[in-house]
């Protein structure tokens, strides 16, 4: 009987360790996690439409109020960050709410992918990634689209394949004549519902790629 109990306990420990998956980091420091409050500071997402939620998240990014963003992160799946339109769940960074709060003020660097054109590896902190890449332009002034791809380059857009149950918004800044209209940028926010409320499962940037 004692042997059976020990085997059950060991299996439970192994199961927990397999489910823990943190993003790959470049540097270490002693930052600790911050407790997450289940009560969001924003208005109830159940009563908002997608455009309202999109606008609120853009303001959070614009004002760099990143801790508020954690309340929008999917409670089970976390949020994935993709540098370009092609989403790769095996390679792209995924942060749970807890991980996001733990690393948002940390100087720990993560590898986010390769920059188009140069092929250089992009390594930076979570906070810098949000300010320098995700919100590289003022998307709050962009054109709003819902479940529609406006910005199109040479890279495949596979949001609907990776997230078949999701809806998404696109915030599109058109290109200029000076650069033959190839200097456009898009920020796509991908949502899935939990108990009839929208939560972020992915934040996807897009631009012209070679």
* CATH architectural designation: Roll
Strand order in the largest sheet? 2-1-8-7-6-5
In what range is the share of β-strand residues? 15-25%
Large-scale geometry: globular
Mean pLDDT: 83
CATH class category? Alpha Beta
N-to-C span: 64 Å
Could you name the CATH topology? Nuclear Transport Factor 2, Chain: A
Uncertain spans: 1-21, 27-47
Q: How is the main sheet built? A: 6 strands, mixed
Organism: Kaistella pullorum
Protein name: Lipoprotein
Please give a structural write-up:
This is Lipoprotein. It comes from Kaistella pullorum. By secondary structure, this protein is α+β, with helices and mostly antiparallel strands. It has one domain (52-207): Nuclear Transport Factor 2, Chain: A. It is 27% helix and 24% strand. It has helices spanning 2-19, 50-63, 66-69, 97-103, 126-134, 159-162; strands spanning 79-82, 93-95, 109-114, 121-125, 143-146, 167-173, 185-194, 197-207. The strands form 2 sheets. The protein has a 6-stranded mixed β-sheet. Strand 3 (109-114) and strand 4 form a beta hairpin. It is globular, with a radius of gyration of 19 Å. The chain starts with a helix and ends with a strand.
Topology overview:
Elements: H1 2-19, H2 50-63, H3 66-69, E1 79-82, E2 93-95, H4 97-103, E3 109-114, E4 121-125, H5 126-134, E5 143-146, H6 159-162, E6 167-173, E7 185-194, E8 197-207
Parallel strand pairs: 1-8
Antiparallel strand pairs: 1-2, 3-4, 5-6, 6-7, 7-8
């Amino acid at each position: 009987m004692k042997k059976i109990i020990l085997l059950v306990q060991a299996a439970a420990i192994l199961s927990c360790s397999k489910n823990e998956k943190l993003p790959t980091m470049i540097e270490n420091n002693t930052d600790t996690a911050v407790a997450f409050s289940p009560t969001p500071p924003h208005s109830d997402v159940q009563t908002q439409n997608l455009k309202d939620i999109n606008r609120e998240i853009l303001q959070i990014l614009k004002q760099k109020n990143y801790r508020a963003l954690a309340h929008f992160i999917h409670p089970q799946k976390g949020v994935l960050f993709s540098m370009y339109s092609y989403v790769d769940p095996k390679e792209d960074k995924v942060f749970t709410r807890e991980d996001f709060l733990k690393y948002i003020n940390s100087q720990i660097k993560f590898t986010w992918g390769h920059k188009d054109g140069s092929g250089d590896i992009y390594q930076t902190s979570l906070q810098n990634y949000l300010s320098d890449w995700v919100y590289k332009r003022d998307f709050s002034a962009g054109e709003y689209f819902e479940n529609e791809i406006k910005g199109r380059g040479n890279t495949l857009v596979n949001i609907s394949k990776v997230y078949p149950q999701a809806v998404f918004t696109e915030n599109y800044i058109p290109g200029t004549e000076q650069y033959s209209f190839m200097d456009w940028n898009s920020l796509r926010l991908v949502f899935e519902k939990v108990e009839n409320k929208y939560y972020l499962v992915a934040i996807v940037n897009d631009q012209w790629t070679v």
